[in-house]
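Box 3.1 A note on notation
Throughout this textbook, protein chains are presented in two layers. The first layer is the amino acid sequence; the second is a token string describing backbone geometry. Keep the layers aligned when reading.
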Amino acid sequence: ARHMEGVQSTSTSRQQLRELFELQHEYLSVDEIFGASETLLHVHLPNTSGSTVWAATHASLDYVSQLGTLLERWRGPISIALVVEPSELQAASRAAKELAKKTISPLIVTAVTADWRKGCSEPGGAMYPANLARQSAFEAVASSCNAWIWMLDADLSPCAGAFERLQAQLERVANKTATVVVTPTFQAFAHAAFEQAVGETDITEIRD
């Protein structure tokens, strides 16, 4: 999670994007990255100006159902970047409306349009442009309000009460200039397995 107070968001230069491509191996050509565009599909900002915790995630349209599950478990503001091809923009707009029905909390949905399924010279063909989508979801919040931003994968299922717990814990951060906070994440094949392996007492000890 990152606290954005006092941080100015700036546009990424062509050279920075080229370096990002080379370092992170996005498997999109440089021209395809520059050809990518963003479209705001849904914007519901909080009524208050106080700092809060936003979740930020990204996915293709194949993962819309999982995004719905995430929204049901996360009771706080969230920014979602949907990665779509140009022909999928209308479908993304419909998906944004459906996602908005699943939460009463502030929500930003952005479509990141790129021809990412075309394939490339690398083995395995086209690869999902995760960094491009992650940056879009992040900056949608950073450019709108002061907030902690919790970066999540679309298939991560927050524990019940995660929003309230994070909010309370971040208020206790002694160093108010801190920009990065690490949160523990556990992997389990089923929710029951998670509850058995990591109980509430264990979570409390780790959290504190």
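Residues 1-12 have pLDDT under 50 and may be disordered. The longest helix spans residues 130-142.
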